[in-house]
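Q: A reviewer asked whether we had any structural model of the full assembly, not just the individual parts. We don't, so I'm hoping you can provide one. Inputs are below.
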Amino acid sequence: MSSSDTVLPGGHVVGLGETRRPDKWWVGPLLTVSFIGVAIGYGTIAMLMGNHYWVGAEGHGFGGYLSPLYSPVLMFDASAAGAAPASHAWFGAFPEWYPSLLPKSPAFLILLFPGAFRFTCYYYRKAYYRSFGFAPPGCAVEGVRRGKYEGETKLFLFQNLHRYAMYFAVIFNIILTYDAVMSFFRDGALGIGVGSVVLTINATLLAFYTFGCHSFRHLIGGRANCFTCDGKETLSSKAWSFGTFFNQRHMQIAWVSLAWVMFTDLYVRMVSMGIWTDFNTWGEAATKTVGL
Amino acid sequence: MGKRSFKIWRGNAEGGEFHTYETEITEGMVVLDAIHQIQAESANDLAVRWNCKAGKCGSCGCEVNGKPKLSCMTRMNSLPEEGDVVIQPIKTFPVIKDLVCDVSYNYVRNKQIPPFAPREREADGTHRMEQRDVDRIQEFRKCIECFLCMDVCHVLRDHEKKDDFVGPRWMIRLASLEMHPLDIVDRIPLIREKFGSGWCNITRCCTEVCPEHINITDNGIIPLKERVVDRFYDPIAMLKRKLFGDKSNKRLPVVEVGDSSASG
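A: Here is a predicted structure for the entire assembly that you could use as a starting point for your response.
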Protein backbone atom coordinates (compact mmCIF):
# COMPACT_ATOMS: atom_id res chain seq x y z
CA MET A 1 0.00 0.00 0.00
CA SER A 2 1.52 3.34 -1.05
CA SER A 3 0.88 6.68 0.65
CA SER A 4 -1.08 7.88 -2.38
CA ASP A 5 -3.62 5.04 -2.12
CA THR A 6 -7.16 5.98 -1.16
CA VAL A 7 -8.40 4.39 2.04
CA LEU A 8 -12.15 4.19 2.54
CA PRO A 9 -13.94 4.40 5.87
CA GLY A 10 -13.59 0.86 7.19
CA GLY A 11 -9.91 0.74 6.29
CA HIS A 12 -10.36 -0.71 2.80
CA VAL A 13 -7.74 0.36 0.29
CA VAL A 14 -8.80 1.27 -3.25
CA GLY A 15 -6.63 -0.03 -6.08
CA LEU A 16 -6.09 -3.04 -8.33
CA GLY A 17 -5.23 -6.12 -6.28
CA GLU A 18 -5.67 -4.35 -2.93
CA THR A 19 -6.83 -6.59 -0.10
CA ARG A 20 -6.12 -7.31 3.55
CA ARG A 21 -6.07 -11.03 2.83
CA PRO A 22 -2.73 -12.48 3.97
CA ASP A 23 -3.25 -15.80 2.14
CA LYS A 24 -1.97 -16.63 -1.34
CA TRP A 25 -5.21 -15.69 -3.12
CA TRP A 26 -3.29 -15.19 -6.37
CA VAL A 27 -2.33 -18.87 -6.69
CA GLY A 28 -5.73 -19.85 -8.11
CA PRO A 29 -5.80 -17.19 -10.85
CA LEU A 30 -2.15 -17.91 -11.67
CA LEU A 31 -2.83 -21.63 -12.10
CA THR A 32 -5.88 -20.82 -14.22
CA VAL A 33 -3.89 -18.52 -16.51
CA SER A 34 -1.10 -21.11 -16.78
CA PHE A 35 -3.41 -24.03 -17.51
CA ILE A 36 -5.63 -22.18 -19.97
CA GLY A 37 -2.51 -20.74 -21.60
CA VAL A 38 -1.02 -24.21 -22.07
CA ALA A 39 -4.34 -25.59 -23.37
CA ILE A 40 -4.82 -22.76 -25.87
CA GLY A 41 -1.17 -22.94 -26.91
CA TYR A 42 -1.20 -26.70 -27.40
CA GLY A 43 -4.59 -26.65 -29.12
CA THR A 44 -3.51 -23.93 -31.54
CA ILE A 45 -0.26 -25.66 -32.46
CA ALA A 46 -2.00 -29.04 -32.83
CA MET A 47 -4.65 -27.43 -35.00
CA LEU A 48 -2.16 -25.61 -37.24
CA MET A 49 -0.06 -28.73 -37.80
CA GLY A 50 -2.88 -30.43 -39.67
CA ASN A 51 -1.19 -33.86 -39.58
CA HIS A 52 -0.75 -37.00 -37.48
CA TYR A 53 -4.28 -37.05 -36.15
CA TRP A 54 -5.12 -40.58 -37.25
CA VAL A 55 -3.92 -44.08 -36.47
CA GLY A 56 -5.43 -46.96 -38.41
CA ALA A 57 -4.77 -50.07 -40.45
CA GLU A 58 -2.88 -49.87 -43.68
CA GLY A 59 -5.87 -51.23 -45.51
CA HIS A 60 -7.96 -48.25 -44.34
CA GLY A 61 -10.54 -50.66 -43.01
CA PHE A 62 -13.21 -50.12 -40.40
CA GLY A 63 -11.90 -48.62 -37.12
CA GLY A 64 -8.90 -46.67 -35.88
CA TYR A 65 -7.90 -43.81 -33.56
CA LEU A 66 -8.95 -40.28 -34.48
CA SER A 67 -7.76 -37.28 -32.45
CA PRO A 68 -10.68 -35.47 -30.77
CA LEU A 69 -9.26 -32.14 -31.91
CA TYR A 70 -9.88 -33.27 -35.50
CA SER A 71 -13.21 -34.97 -35.11
CA PRO A 72 -15.35 -34.83 -37.13
CA VAL A 73 -13.11 -34.61 -40.21
CA LEU A 74 -15.15 -32.37 -42.49
CA MET A 75 -12.47 -31.96 -45.17
CA PHE A 76 -8.99 -33.38 -45.31
CA ASP A 77 -5.64 -32.99 -46.99
CA ALA A 78 -4.50 -36.38 -48.31
CA SER A 79 -0.91 -35.20 -48.58
CA ALA A 80 -0.60 -34.56 -44.83
CA ALA A 81 1.29 -37.24 -42.87
CA GLY A 82 -0.95 -39.18 -40.51
CA ALA A 83 -4.12 -37.92 -42.19
CA ALA A 84 -7.38 -39.83 -41.95
CA PRO A 85 -8.40 -41.88 -44.96
CA ALA A 86 -10.67 -40.24 -47.53
CA SER A 87 -13.63 -42.30 -46.39
CA HIS A 88 -13.52 -40.45 -43.05
CA ALA A 89 -13.88 -36.96 -44.50
CA TRP A 90 -17.52 -35.89 -44.63
CA PHE A 91 -16.99 -33.61 -47.63
CA GLY A 92 -13.83 -35.10 -49.13
CA ALA A 93 -10.61 -33.20 -49.77
CA PHE A 94 -10.15 -29.46 -49.30
CA PRO A 95 -11.48 -27.85 -52.49
CA GLU A 96 -9.28 -25.76 -54.78
CA TRP A 97 -11.15 -22.59 -53.85
CA TYR A 98 -10.21 -23.03 -50.18
CA PRO A 99 -8.37 -19.81 -49.23
CA SER A 100 -4.63 -20.41 -49.13
CA LEU A 101 -4.28 -18.05 -46.17
CA LEU A 102 -6.30 -20.38 -43.97
CA PRO A 103 -4.68 -23.47 -42.47
CA LYS A 104 -5.50 -26.63 -44.40
CA SER A 105 -6.30 -28.47 -41.23
CA PRO A 106 -9.52 -30.37 -40.46
CA ALA A 107 -9.23 -29.11 -36.87
CA PHE A 108 -9.44 -25.49 -38.04
CA LEU A 109 -12.95 -26.15 -39.39
CA ILE A 110 -14.41 -27.50 -36.17
CA LEU A 111 -12.58 -26.21 -33.11
CA LEU A 112 -14.75 -23.10 -33.00
CA PHE A 113 -17.65 -25.18 -31.65
CA PRO A 114 -16.04 -26.84 -28.60
CA GLY A 115 -14.11 -23.59 -28.11
CA ALA A 116 -17.36 -21.62 -27.94
CA PHE A 117 -18.84 -24.16 -25.52
CA ARG A 118 -15.90 -23.77 -23.16
CA PHE A 119 -15.65 -20.00 -23.59
CA THR A 120 -19.30 -19.36 -22.71
CA CYS A 121 -19.40 -22.04 -19.98
CA TYR A 122 -20.61 -20.65 -16.65
CA TYR A 123 -17.67 -22.25 -14.85
CA TYR A 124 -14.96 -21.03 -17.24
CA ARG A 125 -16.52 -17.58 -17.17
CA LYS A 126 -15.74 -17.45 -13.45
CA ALA A 127 -12.24 -18.73 -14.13
CA TYR A 128 -11.28 -16.23 -16.79
CA TYR A 129 -13.22 -13.24 -15.47
CA ARG A 130 -11.14 -13.66 -12.34
CA SER A 131 -7.82 -14.65 -13.88
CA PHE A 132 -7.69 -12.72 -17.12
CA GLY A 133 -10.24 -9.95 -16.48
CA PHE A 134 -9.44 -9.20 -12.82
CA ALA A 135 -13.16 -8.84 -12.28
CA PRO A 136 -12.32 -9.49 -9.49
CA PRO A 137 -8.94 -11.29 -9.28
CA GLY A 138 -10.00 -12.88 -5.99
CA CYS A 139 -12.82 -12.72 -3.49
CA ALA A 140 -12.56 -9.48 -1.50
CA VAL A 141 -9.64 -8.44 -3.69
CA GLU A 142 -10.23 -5.23 -5.61
CA GLY A 143 -10.24 -5.69 -9.36
CA VAL A 144 -10.76 -3.68 -12.52
CA ARG A 145 -11.04 0.06 -12.25
CA ARG A 146 -14.22 1.47 -10.82
CA GLY A 147 -16.71 2.72 -13.36
CA LYS A 148 -15.38 0.45 -16.12
CA TYR A 149 -17.27 -2.70 -15.15
CA GLU A 150 -20.30 -3.63 -17.24
CA GLY A 151 -20.80 -7.27 -16.28
CA GLU A 152 -22.66 -9.22 -18.93
CA THR A 153 -24.86 -6.32 -19.94
CA LYS A 154 -23.01 -5.08 -23.03
CA LEU A 155 -19.84 -6.62 -24.51
CA PHE A 156 -20.46 -9.99 -22.87
CA LEU A 157 -24.16 -10.10 -23.66
CA PHE A 158 -23.43 -12.94 -26.11
CA GLN A 159 -22.75 -15.23 -23.14
CA ASN A 160 -26.52 -15.60 -22.98
CA LEU A 161 -26.33 -17.86 -26.03
CA HIS A 162 -24.32 -20.51 -24.17
CA ARG A 163 -27.12 -23.01 -24.76
CA TYR A 164 -26.55 -22.88 -28.51
CA ALA A 165 -22.91 -23.81 -28.00
CA MET A 166 -24.22 -26.62 -25.78
CA TYR A 167 -26.43 -27.93 -28.60
CA PHE A 168 -23.33 -28.30 -30.78
CA ALA A 169 -21.46 -29.88 -27.88
CA VAL A 170 -24.12 -32.60 -27.67
CA ILE A 171 -23.58 -33.35 -31.39
CA PHE A 172 -19.82 -33.50 -30.79
CA ASN A 173 -20.38 -35.85 -27.83
CA ILE A 174 -22.25 -38.24 -30.12
CA ILE A 175 -19.49 -38.07 -32.73
CA LEU A 176 -16.73 -38.59 -30.16
CA THR A 177 -18.61 -41.53 -28.66
CA TYR A 178 -18.76 -43.03 -32.16
CA ASP A 179 -14.99 -42.42 -32.46
CA ALA A 180 -14.46 -44.18 -29.13
CA VAL A 181 -16.42 -47.21 -30.37
CA MET A 182 -14.42 -47.18 -33.61
CA SER A 183 -11.21 -47.24 -31.60
CA PHE A 184 -12.06 -50.81 -30.59
CA PHE A 185 -11.88 -51.91 -34.21
CA ARG A 186 -8.95 -52.15 -36.56
CA ASP A 187 -9.53 -53.11 -40.18
CA GLY A 188 -12.90 -54.48 -39.07
CA ALA A 189 -11.42 -56.66 -36.33
CA LEU A 190 -12.62 -56.16 -32.74
CA GLY A 191 -9.86 -55.61 -30.22
CA ILE A 192 -8.50 -53.16 -27.70
CA GLY A 193 -5.48 -50.93 -27.40
CA VAL A 194 -4.26 -48.30 -24.98
CA GLY A 195 -5.60 -45.78 -27.49
CA SER A 196 -9.08 -47.31 -27.24
CA VAL A 197 -9.03 -46.67 -23.50
CA VAL A 198 -7.69 -43.15 -23.96
CA LEU A 199 -10.38 -42.27 -26.51
CA THR A 200 -13.13 -43.84 -24.41
CA ILE A 201 -12.12 -41.92 -21.31
CA ASN A 202 -12.04 -38.78 -23.44
CA ALA A 203 -15.56 -39.29 -24.79
CA THR A 204 -16.84 -40.12 -21.30
CA LEU A 205 -15.29 -37.06 -19.66
CA LEU A 206 -16.62 -34.77 -22.38
CA ALA A 207 -20.09 -36.27 -22.00
CA PHE A 208 -19.89 -35.71 -18.22
CA TYR A 209 -18.85 -32.12 -18.89
CA THR A 210 -21.93 -31.58 -21.08
CA PHE A 211 -24.24 -33.32 -18.58
CA GLY A 212 -23.05 -30.89 -15.90
CA CYS A 213 -23.58 -27.81 -18.08
CA HIS A 214 -25.84 -25.25 -16.35
CA SER A 215 -27.83 -24.63 -19.55
CA PHE A 216 -28.27 -28.38 -20.04
CA ARG A 217 -29.49 -28.71 -16.46
CA HIS A 218 -31.92 -25.85 -16.98
CA LEU A 219 -33.31 -27.13 -20.25
CA ILE A 220 -33.77 -30.76 -19.19
CA GLY A 221 -35.77 -29.85 -16.09
CA GLY A 222 -34.53 -26.84 -14.16
CA ARG A 223 -36.88 -24.43 -15.87
CA ALA A 224 -39.90 -26.16 -14.32
CA ASN A 225 -41.17 -25.00 -10.93
CA CYS A 226 -43.16 -28.09 -10.30
CA PHE A 227 -41.34 -31.41 -10.50
CA THR A 228 -44.06 -33.45 -8.87
CA CYS A 229 -47.21 -31.36 -9.09
CA ASP A 230 -49.53 -34.30 -9.55
CA GLY A 231 -47.81 -36.38 -6.90
CA LYS A 232 -45.67 -38.34 -9.34
CA GLU A 233 -42.06 -37.55 -10.07
CA THR A 234 -41.76 -36.37 -13.65
CA LEU A 235 -39.12 -37.39 -16.16
CA SER A 236 -37.78 -33.84 -16.13
CA SER A 237 -37.29 -34.11 -12.36
CA LYS A 238 -35.21 -37.26 -12.79
CA ALA A 239 -33.28 -35.61 -15.61
CA TRP A 240 -32.64 -32.54 -13.45
CA SER A 241 -31.31 -34.72 -10.63
CA PHE A 242 -29.05 -36.47 -13.14
CA GLY A 243 -27.75 -33.11 -14.42
CA THR A 244 -27.34 -31.83 -10.85
CA PHE A 245 -25.01 -34.71 -9.98
CA PHE A 246 -22.62 -33.67 -12.75
CA ASN A 247 -23.26 -29.96 -12.24
CA GLN A 248 -21.96 -30.19 -8.67
CA ARG A 249 -18.69 -31.52 -10.11
CA HIS A 250 -18.63 -29.24 -13.15
CA MET A 251 -15.41 -27.44 -12.21
CA GLN A 252 -13.42 -30.61 -11.67
CA ILE A 253 -14.78 -32.24 -14.82
CA ALA A 254 -14.11 -29.04 -16.81
CA TRP A 255 -10.40 -29.13 -16.00
CA VAL A 256 -9.89 -32.88 -16.23
CA SER A 257 -11.76 -33.16 -19.53
CA LEU A 258 -9.79 -30.26 -21.02
CA ALA A 259 -6.49 -31.83 -20.00
CA TRP A 260 -7.59 -35.23 -21.29
CA VAL A 261 -8.57 -33.87 -24.71
CA MET A 262 -5.04 -32.49 -25.08
CA PHE A 263 -3.54 -35.73 -23.86
CA THR A 264 -5.69 -37.76 -26.26
CA ASP A 265 -4.51 -35.67 -29.20
CA LEU A 266 -0.92 -36.04 -27.98
CA TYR A 267 -1.32 -39.79 -27.66
CA VAL A 268 -2.76 -40.23 -31.16
CA ARG A 269 -0.10 -37.84 -32.53
CA MET A 270 2.78 -39.67 -30.89
CA VAL A 271 1.53 -43.09 -32.00
CA SER A 272 0.86 -41.75 -35.49
CA MET A 273 4.39 -40.36 -35.67
CA GLY A 274 5.80 -43.68 -34.52
CA ILE A 275 7.33 -42.17 -31.37
CA TRP A 276 5.06 -44.01 -28.94
CA THR A 277 4.00 -47.63 -29.29
CA ASP A 278 0.34 -48.40 -28.86
CA PHE A 279 0.02 -51.66 -26.98
CA ASN A 280 -2.98 -53.45 -28.43
CA THR A 281 -4.46 -56.78 -29.41
CA TRP A 282 -4.15 -56.25 -33.18
CA GLY A 283 -0.37 -56.37 -33.45
CA GLU A 284 2.17 -54.03 -35.00
CA ALA A 285 1.04 -54.35 -38.62
CA ALA A 286 -2.45 -53.12 -37.90
CA THR A 287 -1.28 -49.88 -36.29
CA LYS A 288 0.81 -48.51 -39.16
CA THR A 289 0.10 -44.86 -39.74
CA VAL A 290 -1.34 -43.87 -43.07
CA GLY A 291 0.95 -41.61 -45.07
CA LEU A 292 3.94 -41.84 -42.71
CA MET B 1 -2.72 -20.27 23.22
CA GLY B 2 -1.25 -17.04 24.61
CA LYS B 3 -1.67 -13.40 23.67
CA ARG B 4 -2.70 -12.31 20.17
CA SER B 5 -2.52 -8.90 18.63
CA PHE B 6 -5.60 -7.47 16.91
CA LYS B 7 -5.81 -4.54 14.52
CA ILE B 8 -9.39 -3.32 14.69
CA TRP B 9 -10.67 -0.50 12.55
CA ARG B 10 -12.21 2.27 14.65
CA GLY B 11 -14.05 5.25 13.22
CA ASN B 12 -17.21 6.37 11.48
CA ALA B 13 -18.43 7.44 8.04
CA GLU B 14 -16.04 10.41 8.09
CA GLY B 15 -12.97 8.22 8.52
CA GLY B 16 -10.94 6.37 11.09
CA GLU B 17 -7.91 4.20 11.61
CA PHE B 18 -6.74 0.83 12.85
CA HIS B 19 -6.14 0.49 16.59
CA THR B 20 -3.98 -2.28 17.96
CA TYR B 21 -5.12 -4.33 20.95
CA GLU B 22 -3.68 -7.37 22.66
CA THR B 23 -5.71 -9.96 24.50
CA GLU B 24 -5.29 -13.45 25.89
CA ILE B 25 -6.69 -16.20 23.70
CA THR B 26 -7.82 -19.43 25.27
CA GLU B 27 -8.86 -22.70 23.68
CA GLY B 28 -12.19 -22.69 21.87
CA MET B 29 -12.43 -18.91 21.47
CA VAL B 30 -13.95 -17.39 18.35
CA VAL B 31 -13.18 -13.95 16.95
CA LEU B 32 -16.31 -12.47 18.53
CA ASP B 33 -15.13 -13.70 21.95
CA ALA B 34 -11.86 -11.89 21.41
CA ILE B 35 -13.67 -8.71 20.35
CA HIS B 36 -15.83 -8.87 23.47
CA GLN B 37 -12.76 -9.42 25.62
CA ILE B 38 -11.03 -6.42 24.04
CA GLN B 39 -14.23 -4.42 24.56
CA ALA B 40 -14.23 -5.38 28.26
CA GLU B 41 -10.51 -4.89 28.84
CA SER B 42 -9.44 -1.90 26.82
CA ALA B 43 -12.06 -0.50 24.42
CA ASN B 44 -15.38 -0.06 26.20
CA ASP B 45 -16.74 2.12 23.41
CA LEU B 46 -15.95 -0.33 20.59
CA ALA B 47 -19.13 -0.77 18.52
CA VAL B 48 -19.89 -4.29 17.33
CA ARG B 49 -23.23 -5.77 16.29
CA TRP B 50 -24.00 -9.27 17.51
CA ASN B 51 -26.87 -11.28 18.85
CA CYS B 52 -27.11 -15.08 18.87
CA LYS B 53 -23.43 -16.08 18.89
CA ALA B 54 -24.49 -19.27 17.14
CA GLY B 55 -24.24 -18.40 13.46
CA LYS B 56 -27.97 -18.04 13.03
CA CYS B 57 -28.81 -14.35 13.41
CA GLY B 58 -26.35 -13.03 10.85
CA SER B 59 -25.56 -9.91 12.89
CA CYS B 60 -21.82 -10.20 13.50
CA GLY B 61 -20.59 -10.17 9.89
CA CYS B 62 -17.27 -8.39 9.46
CA GLU B 63 -13.99 -8.87 7.62
CA VAL B 64 -11.41 -10.98 9.39
CA ASN B 65 -8.01 -10.84 7.74
CA GLY B 66 -9.68 -9.38 4.65
CA LYS B 67 -12.32 -12.10 4.29
CA PRO B 68 -16.02 -11.64 5.00
CA LYS B 69 -16.86 -13.85 7.97
CA LEU B 70 -19.27 -14.28 10.84
CA SER B 71 -17.05 -13.39 13.78
CA CYS B 72 -19.00 -15.77 16.02
CA MET B 73 -18.24 -18.71 13.73
CA THR B 74 -14.57 -17.97 13.07
CA ARG B 75 -12.44 -19.91 15.48
CA MET B 76 -9.22 -18.26 16.57
CA ASN B 77 -7.28 -21.45 15.88
CA SER B 78 -8.42 -21.33 12.24
CA LEU B 79 -6.43 -18.11 11.69
CA PRO B 80 -2.72 -17.94 10.88
CA GLU B 81 -0.66 -18.04 14.07
CA GLU B 82 1.69 -15.30 12.91
CA GLY B 83 0.88 -11.61 12.56
CA ASP B 84 -2.00 -9.39 13.65
CA VAL B 85 -5.61 -10.42 13.25
CA VAL B 86 -7.10 -7.62 11.14
CA ILE B 87 -10.78 -6.87 11.75
CA GLN B 88 -12.78 -4.42 9.64
CA PRO B 89 -16.42 -3.60 9.02
CA ILE B 90 -17.91 -4.98 5.81
CA LYS B 91 -17.02 -2.84 2.82
CA THR B 92 -20.20 -2.81 0.78
CA PHE B 93 -22.31 -0.81 3.23
CA PRO B 94 -21.64 2.55 4.84
CA VAL B 95 -19.96 2.49 8.24
CA ILE B 96 -21.93 3.83 11.18
CA LYS B 97 -19.32 3.25 13.88
CA ASP B 98 -16.36 0.89 14.17
CA LEU B 99 -17.58 -2.57 13.04
CA VAL B 100 -21.22 -1.58 12.64
CA CYS B 101 -22.60 -0.78 9.17
CA ASP B 102 -25.84 0.63 7.85
CA VAL B 103 -27.42 -2.27 5.95
CA SER B 104 -30.75 -0.52 5.27
CA TYR B 105 -30.14 -0.84 1.50
CA ASN B 106 -31.18 -4.45 1.91
CA TYR B 107 -34.54 -3.62 3.41
CA VAL B 108 -35.27 -1.13 0.62
CA ARG B 109 -34.42 -3.75 -2.01
CA ASN B 110 -36.43 -6.43 -0.24
CA LYS B 111 -39.55 -4.27 -0.41
CA GLN B 112 -39.13 -3.97 -4.17
CA ILE B 113 -39.52 -7.72 -4.68
CA PRO B 114 -43.11 -8.68 -5.53
CA PRO B 115 -44.20 -10.97 -2.69
CA PHE B 116 -45.41 -14.54 -2.87
CA ALA B 117 -48.82 -14.95 -4.48
CA PRO B 118 -50.18 -18.51 -4.55
CA ARG B 119 -52.39 -20.08 -7.18
CA GLU B 120 -56.02 -20.84 -6.34
CA ARG B 121 -56.68 -23.43 -3.69
CA GLU B 122 -57.63 -26.93 -4.70
CA ALA B 123 -61.23 -28.18 -4.55
CA ASP B 124 -60.82 -29.34 -0.97
CA GLY B 125 -59.57 -25.91 0.07
CA THR B 126 -55.92 -26.83 0.47
CA HIS B 127 -52.63 -26.01 -1.17
CA ARG B 128 -50.52 -29.08 -1.87
CA MET B 129 -46.82 -29.22 -2.53
CA GLU B 130 -44.75 -32.35 -2.91
CA GLN B 131 -41.64 -32.67 -0.76
CA ARG B 132 -39.46 -32.91 -3.87
CA ASP B 133 -40.56 -29.43 -4.95
CA VAL B 134 -40.19 -27.99 -1.47
CA ASP B 135 -36.64 -29.33 -1.11
CA ARG B 136 -35.40 -27.34 -4.07
CA ILE B 137 -36.42 -23.94 -2.69
CA GLN B 138 -35.78 -24.87 0.93
CA GLU B 139 -32.07 -24.38 0.36
CA PHE B 140 -32.64 -20.68 -0.28
CA ARG B 141 -34.66 -20.30 2.90
CA LYS B 142 -31.60 -21.19 4.98
CA CYS B 143 -30.37 -17.61 4.40
CA ILE B 144 -29.71 -15.81 7.70
CA GLU B 145 -29.27 -12.40 6.05
CA CYS B 146 -25.75 -11.86 7.27
CA PHE B 147 -25.07 -10.02 3.98
CA LEU B 148 -21.57 -11.48 3.63
CA CYS B 149 -22.50 -12.37 0.04
CA MET B 150 -23.46 -8.75 -0.55
CA ASP B 151 -20.13 -7.69 0.96
CA VAL B 152 -18.01 -9.91 -1.24
CA CYS B 153 -19.98 -9.27 -4.46
CA HIS B 154 -17.59 -7.07 -6.42
CA VAL B 155 -20.45 -5.46 -8.36
CA LEU B 156 -21.63 -3.88 -5.11
CA ARG B 157 -18.36 -3.86 -3.19
CA ASP B 158 -15.97 -2.34 -5.72
CA HIS B 159 -18.19 -0.90 -8.42
CA GLU B 160 -20.99 0.33 -6.16
CA LYS B 161 -23.71 -0.64 -8.65
CA LYS B 162 -26.37 -0.81 -5.99
CA ASP B 163 -28.94 0.86 -8.24
CA ASP B 164 -28.21 -1.58 -11.09
CA PHE B 165 -27.76 -4.94 -9.37
CA VAL B 166 -29.82 -6.15 -6.45
CA GLY B 167 -27.06 -8.43 -5.09
CA PRO B 168 -26.79 -12.16 -4.31
CA ARG B 169 -28.96 -12.25 -1.19
CA TRP B 170 -31.90 -10.81 -3.09
CA MET B 171 -31.28 -12.91 -6.17
CA ILE B 172 -31.66 -15.88 -3.82
CA ARG B 173 -34.94 -14.53 -2.47
CA LEU B 174 -36.11 -13.99 -6.05
CA ALA B 175 -35.10 -17.57 -6.89
CA SER B 176 -37.04 -18.93 -3.91
CA LEU B 177 -40.17 -17.14 -5.11
CA GLU B 178 -39.66 -17.71 -8.82
CA MET B 179 -39.15 -21.47 -8.38
CA HIS B 180 -41.97 -21.84 -5.86
CA PRO B 181 -44.44 -24.42 -7.21
CA LEU B 182 -47.46 -22.47 -5.95
CA ASP B 183 -46.39 -18.96 -6.87
CA ILE B 184 -47.89 -17.34 -9.97
CA VAL B 185 -46.18 -13.93 -10.15
CA ASP B 186 -44.01 -13.34 -13.21
CA ARG B 187 -40.83 -11.64 -11.95
CA ILE B 188 -38.53 -12.44 -14.88
CA PRO B 189 -38.76 -8.99 -16.53
CA LEU B 190 -37.96 -7.38 -13.18
CA ILE B 191 -35.05 -9.76 -12.59
CA ARG B 192 -33.49 -8.63 -15.84
CA GLU B 193 -34.24 -4.94 -15.70
CA LYS B 194 -34.73 -3.66 -12.18
CA PHE B 195 -32.69 -6.29 -10.35
CA GLY B 196 -29.95 -6.45 -12.98
CA SER B 197 -29.18 -10.15 -13.44
CA GLY B 198 -26.81 -9.24 -16.30
CA TRP B 199 -24.48 -7.38 -13.92
CA CYS B 200 -23.54 -10.60 -12.16
CA ASN B 201 -20.56 -12.22 -13.84
CA ILE B 202 -20.92 -15.34 -11.70
CA THR B 203 -17.49 -15.25 -10.09
CA ARG B 204 -18.95 -17.29 -7.22
CA CYS B 205 -17.47 -15.36 -4.32
CA CYS B 206 -20.96 -15.13 -2.82
CA THR B 207 -21.17 -18.92 -2.73
CA GLU B 208 -17.68 -19.19 -1.22
CA VAL B 209 -18.45 -16.94 1.75
CA CYS B 210 -22.00 -18.12 2.55
CA PRO B 211 -21.95 -19.46 6.14
CA GLU B 212 -25.08 -21.49 5.42
CA HIS B 213 -23.41 -23.12 2.40
CA ILE B 214 -26.21 -22.10 0.07
CA ASN B 215 -25.15 -22.77 -3.50
CA ILE B 216 -26.07 -19.21 -4.46
CA THR B 217 -24.51 -19.24 -7.91
CA ASP B 218 -25.31 -22.68 -9.28
CA ASN B 219 -28.76 -23.12 -7.76
CA GLY B 220 -29.99 -19.55 -7.58
CA ILE B 221 -28.39 -16.96 -9.81
CA ILE B 222 -27.53 -19.09 -12.86
CA PRO B 223 -31.01 -20.68 -13.06
CA LEU B 224 -32.48 -17.16 -12.92
CA LYS B 225 -30.10 -16.00 -15.65
CA GLU B 226 -31.17 -19.01 -17.74
CA ARG B 227 -34.83 -18.06 -17.25
CA VAL B 228 -33.99 -14.54 -18.41
CA VAL B 229 -32.35 -16.10 -21.48
CA ASP B 230 -35.52 -18.13 -22.13
CA ARG B 231 -37.57 -14.96 -22.10
CA PHE B 232 -35.32 -12.36 -23.71
CA TYR B 233 -32.37 -13.85 -25.60
CA ASP B 234 -33.16 -17.32 -26.94
CA PRO B 235 -34.74 -16.81 -30.39
CA ILE B 236 -36.05 -20.38 -30.59
CA ALA B 237 -37.70 -20.19 -27.15
CA MET B 238 -39.20 -16.81 -28.06
CA LEU B 239 -40.58 -18.17 -31.34
CA LYS B 240 -41.96 -21.25 -29.60
CA ARG B 241 -43.76 -19.07 -27.08
CA LYS B 242 -45.19 -16.94 -29.85
CA LEU B 243 -46.47 -19.94 -31.79
CA PHE B 244 -47.66 -22.16 -28.98
CA GLY B 245 -48.21 -19.74 -26.09
CA ASP B 246 -46.64 -19.55 -22.64
CA LYS B 247 -47.29 -22.75 -20.73
CA SER B 248 -45.77 -21.59 -17.44
CA ASN B 249 -47.95 -21.07 -14.41
CA LYS B 250 -46.71 -17.50 -14.00
CA ARG B 251 -49.77 -15.49 -14.84
CA LEU B 252 -49.84 -12.45 -12.64
CA PRO B 253 -48.26 -9.33 -14.09
CA VAL B 254 -45.37 -7.66 -12.34
CA VAL B 255 -46.36 -5.29 -9.58
CA GLU B 256 -43.95 -2.51 -8.70
CA VAL B 257 -43.57 -2.31 -4.95
CA GLY B 258 -41.45 -0.16 -2.66
CA ASP B 259 -39.05 2.71 -3.08
CA SER B 260 -37.30 2.80 -6.46
CA SER B 261 -34.19 4.46 -5.06
CA ALA B 262 -31.92 1.72 -3.74
CA SER B 263 -28.64 3.35 -2.81
CA GLY B 264 -28.14 3.35 0.89
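A: Points you may want to mention in the reply: The mean pLDDT of chain A is 92. The first strand of chain A starts at residue 6 and ends at 8.
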